[in-house]
Each structure stands twice: as C-alpha cells, then as structure tokens.
C-alpha cells in the first residue's frame, strides 16, 4: 500500500510497481497517468478527496482497478459554508465589516432567508446536506441532479452548485444560464463548472446579486484576477471543507475500506468509471 501526494510524490512514485493499493491525496490523481506503465499490481486506488476529475478514466476503464473516493466526508462542512454564504448576503455582512472599519454607525434593513428559495444543482451528498440545513431554516428547496436546471437558475434566490466535475458538467453554468440568474450563485463544486468570464461580467455590471465561490478555474486564484476586487463576490481559497477533523474523517473512511478490501468485501464509495464520479 502506497501513498501519492505532493509532499511524498517523487519518493513514493518509484515504488508504485510494488503496490497493490494506492492512496492518492486531493488533486494528485494525474500522477496515475504519468506512472501508468508501472501500475501493474494495483487492484484498488482510493482518492482521499471527493473530486476525482484528475484521474485518467480512459486508462482505468477496463483495467480491473477499483477507484473509490471520500464523497460524503466533507458534505457537512460544505453545507455549512453554503448557509454562511446565504447569510453573508442576506444580512449584508460585508457592509457591517466595512462600516466597522470606518467607525460608521449606519442602520439598514436586512433580509430573512426564511421563505427564500434555495436551488440546488447536484443532489448528491453535498446537495442533500445543504437541503437539510436550508429546510431547517425555513427555506423552500428545489433540487436537481443537473438534468433540468433552467427553472432553478431563473427562480431561486440562492443557486448552489454541488455537482461533480465531469465532461457533462464542465461549463454547465454557461453565459446563457448566468444571464438568467436573479439571485446569488454559490459554488462548492469545481471552478470549471462555471463560465468564469461571464460570471465576472454579470457581477461587475450587477446583473446578478452576488456570488460566493470556494473553487475557481485556476487555483490559486491569480492576484490580478478581477474577482478579487468585486464587492459582490465572496472569495474562499478552496478551504470550505477544511475543518480540524476533515483529514481524520477521510482517513477513517479509507481504513474502513482497507478492512473491507482485506476481507474481500465490496468497497464503499466506488466511483463509476463511465460516469466519472
């Protein structure tokens, strides 16, 4: 069993030929393609993150290798971020922070999220966790697995993107759909799901209310990127799911699967190699 990550990659990659199981840390799946000729004995690869878009599915299909991931582990933390983002805009926390810094006493009206509509695109573990919390706050929830999203885009006060990145969801939130948005876009999916240029234009011209983004087309977000300077954008450095216990929870899932693997049982969180999630 061997681990592939940015800290140990070079040292460990040399030993892939001896491995039967590979543990791959987030965003390091592309090394599998680079080392494919040496992946001869591997029977199972586990992604410590939930996203698997960097893995070489064209090679994995038909290889007999089982790929699993950590979906579900991060759902609660991401759902809490989504609720926080909704409150950020409803209560205009940016205005509070700005006024506090200026020592300015400026009363203003705020909104309730109770009664507002949360539209969730991608109703997997993260989407369901968002729905549970939104409903507890008295919100109306409408959801889809990304097969029919135009009504959600047009009618939701808060549109939450929680889809995996696949060839089908890349560019899902395109310029036409962004033009139909009326509320706040919250992305805890992947940056490539959104047409970032169109989103920047819609935010800059205030055609949409705002956006809360934990993921971006290029990460880290370049210092000169226009999103940084927009007062209706809330920027998170892809850390919405990084809690004090997130790594331990992910490792617990992996270790449970290790025991299943040793006993010859079906593994948890098997990735569909055809659908790529």
Brief overview:
Helices cover 32% and strands 14% of the residues.
Structure description:
The protein has 277 residues and is an alpha/beta fold. It has two domains: 2-72 and 244-263, Rossmann fold (3-Layer(aba) Sandwich); 75-235, 3-Layer(aba) Sandwich (Rossmann fold), CATH 3.40.50. Helix content is 32%, strand content 14%. It has helices at residues 9-13, 31-34, 57-60, 75-90, 93-101, 125-136, 150-155, 175-180, 196-204, 246-263; strands at residues 2-4, 21-24, 44-47, 66-68, 117-121, 140-144, 158-161, 184-187, 210-213, 233-235. The strands form two sheets. The chain has a six-stranded parallel beta sheet. The chain has a four-stranded parallel beta sheet with strand order 1-2-3-4. Helix 9 (196-204) links the parallel strand 8 (184-187) and strand 9 (210-213). The protein starts with a strand and ends in a 14-residue tail after the last helix. The model is unreliable at 6-12 (pLDDT under 50).
Q: What key attributes describe this structure?
A:
Rossmann fold; 277 residues; alpha/beta; 4-stranded parallel beta sheet; 6-stranded parallel beta sheet
Described by strand count, sense and barrel closure, the largest sheet is: 6 strands, parallel
Q: Give the mean pLDDT.
A: 94
**What low-confidence regions span 5 or more consecutive residues with pLDDT below 50?**
6-12
Give the termini distance in whole angstroms.
23 Å
β-strand number: 10
CATH architecture of the largest domain: 3-Layer(aba) Sandwich
């Amino acid at each position: 069993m061997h681990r592939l990550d940015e800290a140990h990659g070079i040292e460990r990659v040399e030993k892939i030929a001896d491995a039967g199981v590979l543990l791959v840390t987030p965003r390091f799946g592309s090394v599998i393609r680079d080392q494919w000729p040496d992946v001869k004995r591997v029977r199972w690869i586990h992604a410590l993150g939930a996203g698997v878009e960097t893995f070489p599915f064209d090679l994995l299909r038909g290889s007999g290798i089982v790929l699993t991931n950590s979906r579900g582990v991060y759902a609660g933390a991401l759902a809490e971020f989504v609720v926080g983002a909704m409150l950020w805009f409803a209560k205009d926390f940016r205005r509070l922070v700005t006024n506090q810094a200026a020592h300015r006493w400026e009363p203003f009206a705020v909104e309730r999220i109770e009664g507002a509509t949360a539209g969730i695109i991608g109703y997997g573990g993260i989407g369901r966790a968002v729905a549970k919390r939104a409903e507890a706050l008295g919100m109306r929830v409408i959801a889809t697995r990304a097969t029919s999203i135009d009504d959600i885009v047009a009618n939701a006060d808060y549109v939450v993107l929680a889809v995996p990145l696949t060839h089908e969801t890349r560019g899902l939130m395109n310029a036409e759909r962004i033009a139909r948005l009326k509320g706040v876009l919250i992305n805890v999916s992947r940056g490539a799901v959104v047409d970032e240029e169109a989103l920047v234009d819609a935010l800059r011209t205030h055609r949409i209310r705002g956006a809360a983004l934990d993921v971006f087309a290029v990460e880290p977000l370049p210092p000169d990127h226009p999103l940084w300077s927009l007062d209706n954008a809330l920027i998170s450095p892809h850390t919405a799911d990084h809690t004090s216990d997130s790594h331990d929870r992910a490792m617990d899932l992996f270790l449970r699967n290790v025991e299943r693997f040793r006993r010859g049982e079906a593994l948890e969180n098997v990735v569909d190699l055809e659908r790529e999630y």
